[in-house]
Amino acid sequence: MKKSILWGVAALVLIGGGYVGYQYWISTQNQTQAERPTQAVDVITVKMQKINPEASFVAKIESKDKVGLRARVTGFLQEQLFEDGDMVSKGQPLFLIEKVNFEAQVRQAEANLEKAKASAVNAKAQYDRTKTLFKTKDVSEAKLDEAKAANDSAVATVAEMKALLDLAKKDLEYTTIVAPMNGKIGETTFSVGELIGPESGVLAEIVSIDPIDAVFSVSENQLLMLQNLFGKETDTEAVFIAADGRVYPNKGQINFIDVALDEAMNTLKMKASFPNPDHRLISGQYGRVNLKGINPIDKIVIPMKAVQRDMSGAFVYLVDADNKIVKQAVQTGLELPNFDVVIESGLTGGETLVVAGFQKIAPQMTVDPVPVQ
Predict the structure, then answer these.
(1) 175 and 77: one domain?
(2) Which of the listed residues 145, 175, 205 is the one where a domain comes to its end?
(3) Res 233: pLDDT
(4) 276: phi then psi, degrees, rounded to nearest 5
(5) Distance between alpha carbon 327 and the CA centroid of its chain, in Å?
(6) Other C-beta atoms lying within 10 Å of the C-beta of residue 80
(7) Is the pLDDT of residue 5 over 70?
(8) Is the pLDDT at 1 greater than 90, yes or no?
(9) Does residue 46 share a domain with residue 167?
(10) What is the mean pLDDT of residues 231-253?
(11) CA angle 120, 123, 129 (to 5 degrees)
(12) At how many degrees (to 10) do helices 141-173 and 100-135 cross?
């Protein structure tokens, strides 16, 4: 009986002590919460800014034109009139094919033409006499028809000989192979003295150098962005940046936009043309093309680091009038080279935007906003 009473007293003491301890812990926690400082966060005020929109794309330098020189007639290569790698001008003689046979063919064609003309004169005289005799009934109608046919045949032969002479002259002209355009000529594939002809393939290749194109592709979304921000291609300036980061000094201009998206890649091919008087840009060279709008536009621009993302998309944290955190969905647009981003929707200007300390905040949490530059 005494043991039961002792156990009961001990239990009451333990329960009372636990209750007192719990009340002390609660009061301690409340005191800690009251003394805990409000979380400070860096903020800026969202503003509308004037920007010259910019966008950057991987690009490859390509010649505007490329021509493979071929022989149109067969003969021995007599002379090469340039050095491999030279700059050449349109109409400049480059190769000479031995002319002897072609000059002889021209002389023979000229002789054949003169012979045909003489025969035509005689046929015309015979036809005229026959017509006179036919009027006096001294020849039959059959003789008149024969004379007319002979005259017509002689006229046709003259035309044929003229055509053959033109072909012979053209073949003689083809013995001099000239540059079809201004550009840089590559390495020759044949040596002087070799027999060349139409079946020989390309003798050398000429590529245009000035101006030269930077070719790049944009996705469908990027295309819509460019149309929205840049307007007409004539309002856009192009800058080429080489693989080592050096900026090419001559500005370019968009000169080609393909008519349809590539179905496999869902991209659109574009070209920007650059003056290249010093030949610094070389066909096949890789780099980046930066497009910059000439006319400034008004846009909401915020630091890229302020934009957060989750399964629902992009969002930012704002601080409302009661210093509480608000989660705001946004639609981002063009990313600018200075690590800023254009906001197409979700912000209108004047909002207080959190730009740092995201890991320590949550929606509806009260914070201490600290304005930063």
Answers:
(1) yes
(2) 205
(3) 56
(4) -140, 55
(5) 40
(6) 17
(7) no
(8) no
(9) no
(10) 83
(11) 145
(12) 160
Q: What is the pLDDT of residues 84-137, one digit of tens each?
A: 888 898 999 999 999 999 999 999 999 999 999 999 999 898 888 888 887 887
What's the order of all strands across the beta sheet hosting 195-196? 176-178, 93-97, 75-80, 195-196
DSSP 296: -
Q: Are 301 and 352 in contact (CB under 8 A)?
A: no
Integer Cα distance of 96 and 77 in angstroms: 6
HEC readout, 10-51: HHHHHHHHHHHHHHHHHHHHHHHHHHCCCEEEEEEECCEEEE
Same domain, 163 and 96: yes
* Residues of the domain holding 364: 39-51+298-371
Q: Look up tokens 């890649």; give the residue.
A: 265
pLDDT above 70 for 330? yes
Cα angle value 110/113/116 (rounded, 5°):
155
* Contact between residue 372 and residue 319 where contact means Cβ atoms under 8 Å apart: no
Helices (H), the chain: 2-35, 100-135, 141-173, 220-230
Paired tokens of 270: 């574009």
What mean pLDDT is reported for the chain?
A: 84
Residues 268 and 319 in one domain: no
Tokens of 257: 């936009």
Using DSSP, state whether 228 is helix, strand or coil. helix
| Residue 7 lies inside a defined structural domain of this protein | no
**What backbone torsions phi and psi does residue 330 show, to the nearest 5 degrees?**
-140, 160
Mean local confidence (pLDDT), 242-255: 89
Please give the pLDDT value at position 214: 92
pLDDT at 14: 46
Q: How far is 352 from 350, CA to CA, in rounded Å? A: 7
How many other C-beta atoms are found inside a 10 Å radius of the C-beta of residue 31?
Answer: 10
The DSSP code for 338 is T
Query: The CATH number of the domain where 148 resides is what?
Result: 2.40.50.100
pLDDT at 24 over 60: no
Q: How many helices (H) and strands (E) does the chain have?
A: 4, 24
Domain total of the chain: 3
